[in-house]
Specification:
10 helices, 5-stranded mixed β-sheet, alpha/beta, globular
Length: about 325
C-alpha cells in the first residue's frame, strides 16, 4: 500500500476546506490518499491588524518552512495572500480553475453598500477594501477586523457591525449558508486583489517527478495566465499583497482583459487602467508553446504574461501610482 501524499495546510476552516478540495482532486489523479498536515502560521497566532504586522507572507512563511524541511510534500495557498516572490527551492506546480473573484457585502437588512449612512459600520481588514468602502460609502465607519468567516458573519448578525466584506470564493468553498443578505460587487466597479478566487499549489523544485506531473494535472491554463498578469502588476508596483490596489484579468476568446486600480489609503484618489491584449499579440504567447509551461529560455506564455503585467505596472507608475501605494522595499537612503 502506497504512503499518503502529505498536504501542508493552515488550521483555519477555510484553509482546510480549500485544501480538502485540492486533496480530493489529486486523489482522483493519482489513486493515492492525501493526508492533511496542519501547520500554524504567524497570521493564525498574531491577532494584530494585518496592516500592523504586515500582510506580506504572514500566512505562508511557516508553511513554506515546513515544506522545505520535508514535513509535507506540497502546500495549498490562497493566491491573493501569497507574496509574488517564490523562495528558492520551491515552485508553483498548479493553479486550479479560479472560483468567483468578486467581493460580497453581507448585511442584516439588505441595504446596498452605497446606501449605508453616517453611523453605519463596515468590517474589513483589507487596505484595498477600506479604500473602496471610503469611496463607495463615505459616510460609513470602517472597522478593522480579523477572524474567521463565521466570527465575522456573527458580528453582523448580532448587530455589532452593519456589514462585512468577504471574498465570494471563500464563502463558496466553505459552503456557508448564512441568513444575511448578500450584495455581489461587480468587478468592473469593484476590482479585487491580484489572484483573488485562485489557489496556488506549491511544492519543492526537487520533488519527485511523479508528484510534480500529478500536481500539474490540476493546473488551469487560463487561470494561470490571468493570475500571472495580475501578480506581475503587483510586483511591478513593488507593493506588498496588503497594498490598496486591485487587479483582475480574464481570458475571453482570443483576448485577455485587465482591469487594475491603485487607491490612496483614504480612498480619495485612484489611478486605474483598462487594458485589452490579443493572446497572439506582442506579449502573450510570443514565442510560447501555449501549453501553460514556459520554454527553458523563459520565452513561453507565462513569461510573456508576466512581461505584460510589468508593462501595465509601469503605466500606472507613470501616472503617479507610486504616490499612492506604500512600497514593499522603501528607500531609506
Amino acid at each position: 500500500m502506497s504512503t499518503p501524499i502529505r498536504l501542508g495546510t493552515r488550521r483555519s476552516a477555510l484553509a482546510q476546506a480549500q485544501s480538502g478540495h485540492v486533496a480530493a482532486a489529486l486523489e482522483k489523479v493519482t489513486g493515492r490518499a492525501v493526508e492533511l498536515v496542519p501547520i500554524t502560521s504567524e497570521g493564525d497566532t498574531n491577532r494584530a491588524s494585518l496592516s500592523e504586522i504586515g500582510g506580506l507572507g504572514v500566512f505562508a512563511t511557516r508553511l513554506r518552512e515546513a515544506l522545505l524541511a520535508g514535513r509535507c510534500d506540497f502546500l495549498v495557498h490562497s493566491l491573493k495572500d501569497l507574496p509574488t516572490a517564490v523562495p528558492e527551492g520551491l515552485v508553483i506546480a498548479a493553479t486550479p480553475p479560479r472560483e468567483d473573484a468578486r467581493d460580497v457585502v453581507l448585511t442584516r437588512h439588505g441595504a446596498p453598500l452605497h446606501e449605508l449612512g453616517s453611523g453605519s459600520t463596515v468590517g474589513t481588514g483589507s487596505p484595498r477594501r477600506i479604500a473602496q468602502v471610503r469611496r463607495r460609502a463615505p459616510q460609513a465607519e470602517v472597522v478593522d477586523i480579523r477572524g474567521n468567516v463565521d466570527s465575522r458573519l456573527a458580528r453582523v448578525a448580532s448587530g455589532e457591525l452593519d456589514a462585512v466584506i468577504l471574498a465570494a470564493a471563500g464563502l463558496s468553498r466553505l459552503g456557508t449558508d448564512s441568513p444575511l443578505k448578500r450584495e455581489e460587487l461587480g468587478l468592473a466597479e469593484w476590482p479585487t486583489a491580484p489572484g483573488q478566487g485562485s489557489l496556488a499549489v506549491e511544492t519543492r523544485a526537487d520533488a519527485p517527478e511523479e508528484l510534480r506531473e500529478a500536481l500539474s494535472a490540476l493546473d488551469d491554463h487560463d487561470t494561470r495566465l490571468a493570475v500571472t498578469v495580475e501578480r506581475a502588476i503587483l510586483e511591478g508596483l513593488d507593493a506588498g499583497c496588503q497594498a490598496p490596489m486591485a487587479a483582475h484579468a480574464r481570458v475571453e476568446g482570443a483576448e485577455i482583459r485587465i482591469r487594475t486600480v491603485v487607491y490612496a489609503p483614504d480612498g480619495g484618489r485612484r489611478i486605474g487602467l483598462d487594458v485589452t491584449e490579443a493572446l497572439n499579440g506582442e506579449y502573450i504567447h510570443r514565442n510560447g508553446s501555449g501549453n501553460g509551461a514556459d520554454a527553458a529560455d523563459g520565452a513561453g506564455p507565462m513569461h510573456a504574461a508576466r512581461e505584460l503585467g510589468l508593462a501595465v505596472a509601469r503605466r500606472l507608475l507613470d501616472q503617479g501610482a507610486a504616490d499612492l501605494v506604500p512600497r514593499e522595499h522603501p528607500d531609506f537612503s
